[in-house]
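SECTION: protein entry
WANTED: fold as tokens:
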Amino acid sequence: MGDREQLLTAVFDKKKAAILRVLLNAAEELSLNEIAQRTKVPMSSAYRILQELAKSGIIERKEWKNSKVYRWKSSKETPLLQELFQEEFDGVAAFLESIKNIPGVQSIIQHGGKKKGKANILIIGEGVSNATIEDAGRKIREKGFELKYVTLTKDQYEQMTKMGLYSGDKEVLL
């Protein structure tokens, strides 16, 4: 558990914090069932917390005939709460998971050190499917993570390194 998680758990009820996190990070409206599943909070507790949050004006509840959906209600406090409850997306880990089993990939290197929300990746291999890598990269960028990568053969990488093109911080990921 990170420092942010510990602080939020200490200040907020764990169940309420989980529900706030899910609603703040959701791109769409969610039903009670979806919220309970994503947070692993029992449905009765989730219902009680959602009623409390809706009554206080923090979230909105929309009702149709037999369904209710909940979403974050934008206010002047929204940026502060979004900062507190924002889920950190590790684009490098997600990209690595997507491409590590692609045939021909021999090594994956993060070049230029770690920066929040962005990364430069070198993919070393022979006969690597660029279409699969493009698809994985697009999905990562859609989540707001700035990802740049290049696919090289081992010989190309070694030659470019000798020329000083890939000097600086490097971390071998695979």
User: Anything to note?
Assistant: Strands lie at 30-31, 59-63, 68-72, 105-115, 118-125, 146-152, 170-172. The domain at 3-85 is CATH 1.10.10.10 (Arc Repressor Mutant, subunit A). The first strand starts at residue 30 and ends at 31.
